[in-house]
Amino acid sequence: xxxxxxxxxxxxxxxxxxxxxxLLGYQLRMAQIALFRDFASGLxxxxxxxxxxxxxxxxxxxxxxxxSDLARATHLDRSxxxxxxxxxxxxxxxxxxxxLHDRRANAIRLTAEGTALLRKLxxxxxxxxKRLLRNFSDTERETLLTLLQKVxxxxx
Length: 156
Fold this sequence. Notes:
Elements: H1 24-43, H2 50-61, E1 65-66, H3 67-74, H4 78-90, E2 94-99, E3 102-110, H5 112-132, H6 138-151
Antiparallel strand pairs: 1-3, 2-3
Helix pairs in contact: 1-5, 2-5, 3-4
């Protein structure tokens, strides 16, 4: 009901989104929202976001990675990466060491606990991806990934 006690007809009315549905940015944002919601529902118990999962995967693939290299790889500023690594270190998932060829820099690697968690997360992320792409054929999935990589080609 509206303030004057007449039925609210807009409550169930279909909204017009104007040009938005035809915009790449809008569709990417809607896909991101769906992805984050599903990710949180499937992996929320581990307190890991898609971004944090990506950080763990990059560290695993590059043992003794310098923090500055992680910042470049994730497109985060150095201070944000320090905060992320501090958080992961407090959780016992990563450890810092002095870099081999530059003692002024920290090298990061997964701990045994971090490796075990990431193994579990990868299985859950595979299921998450499967849910998100359930309406896609294998060819469509590959095409989608190829097309999205063209939006940001320097990040391959």
